[in-house]
Amino acid sequence: MSEEDEKKSKPIEEEAEQSPSEGNEDVVVVSDEQEDKEPAEDKEPVEDKEPPKPAPKKPEPKKSEKNNKGKEYLPDFPYDFKTVLSVLLAVCAIVFIWCIIFHPAMRIESIEVNGNYEFTDEEIMDALGVHVGDHILTPTLMQCMSLERSTPYIDDVSVHISFPSSLVINVTERHKLAYIKVPDGYAVIDDEGVILEFCTFDADDVHPVLCGLDLDGVVIGQRTDITDSLKFQKMILVLGAVLDADRGSIRNDGYHFYDSVREVRIVSSGLIFLTVELPDGTVLQVKLAGVENIDENMQWLLYAIRADAFEGLPAGSLDMTEDEKIYRAYSTYY
Fold first, then answer.
1. Which of 125, 248, 270, 287 counts the most CB atoms within 10 A of its CB?
2. CATH number, domain at 125?
3. Chain segment 100-156, per-residue pLDDT in tens
4. Domain that residue 204 falls in
5. Quick check: 224 and 195 in contact, CB under 8 A?
6. Is 325 found in the same domain as 248?
7. For residue 45, is the peptide bond before it cis, meaning its omega torsion is within 30 degrees of 0?
8. In the beta sheet, which residues pair with residue 272?
9. Do 154 and 215 belong to one domain?
10. Gap between the Cα atoms of 208 and 240, Å rounded
């Protein structure tokens, strides 16, 4: 290096050494080594903290080893399982329907009809449209309802299948109990007061007749309002006792007590008059006080009639209002 160069460099170094103190009194120059050795006084001490415990990990669901596309039961089969199942179900349904329609066991071989008195078995079967040899499912609910509506004498009809090839028809009938006088003739009623039919027979052919009931308008198949009256209820009890006495009798001589009753009448005083035709054709008028002992009285009366207790007596009446029965001829009746 030349002397001129050295002279030039010295003033520069002297300026560099003097510049920090002269120009900026507040600036302190710290070397890198001093910075590393000086402790960090301004830094706050760090507290020793326990490291946070890691949260328990949820078990990962096991990956299904099955194929999402479904099992392959027959790997080489050209159709999947759902298609095969659908075909099998369709074939089973076709076979089942064929068995129901065409199998010989589904044809009726015998028909049993129960509960019918007014109608014969053939009339019930014709009304339902069912006969031996027909399909066992021929009678339907609509046919049963149609039969019930066709006549008021039928209260209910039910059909039961007795496999393999039998049919049971249960019929609940309404039974004719008595007649009631109406303006145009007579109305036939049952024990529930349902009008079964109208008739215009002569008075000799119509019995028993319930007399003294106010019946203005009636409709076939409908219940009348007279069933709520006390008179009607007492008359039904009297006829019921007559029927019970007739059925309970062990003697079969051709005389029917119920068929021999001509009239049942209740007067305003509460007395009941029963008109009965005797086996010899004469007419007996029976007076009753009420219906308290009606069953015993009707059994006694039937026993007396069958024992010919009134045979040869003049026409008259039997007073059964007291414990002692008194017969009075019409010529001496007062």
1. 125
2. 3.10.20.310
3. 666 666 678 888 999 888 889 998 888 888 888 877 777 777 778 888 888 888 988
4. 178-228
5. yes
6. yes
7. no
8. 266, 288
9. no
10. 12
- The answer to whether residues 207 and 287 belong to one domain is no
Tokens encoding 213: 């009931």
Q: Which two tokens stand for residue 113?
A: 């009809």
Cis ω on the peptide bond leading into residue 61 (within 30° of 0)? no
Residues 6+ apart with CB under 8 A from 190: 174, 175, 176, 177, 196
DSSP 154-176: EEEEEEEEETTTEEEEEEEE---
CB 296 within 8 A of CB 329: no
Are 224 and 235 in the same domain? no
Q: What is the dihedral of CA 37, 43, 44, 46, to 10 degrees?
A: -60
Q: What are phi and psi of 266, to 5 degrees?
A: -120, 125
* Listed residue (254, 263, 180, 193) closest to 228, CA to CA: 193
**Does residue 291 share a domain with residue 221?**
no
pLDDT at 211 over 60: yes
Q: Which pair of structure tokens corresponds to residue 307?
A: 């024992």
Token readout for 256 is: 């029917």
Round to the nearest angstrom and report the end-to-end CA distance of the chain: 186
288-306 tens-digit pLDDT: 998 989 999 999 999 999 8
d(CA 150, CA 220): 11
265 and 312 housed in the same domain: yes
Beta strand 316-319 pairing with 283-288: parallel
Q: Phi first, then psi: give them for residue 16, nearest 5 degrees.
A: -65, -35
Q: How many domains does the chain have?
A: 3
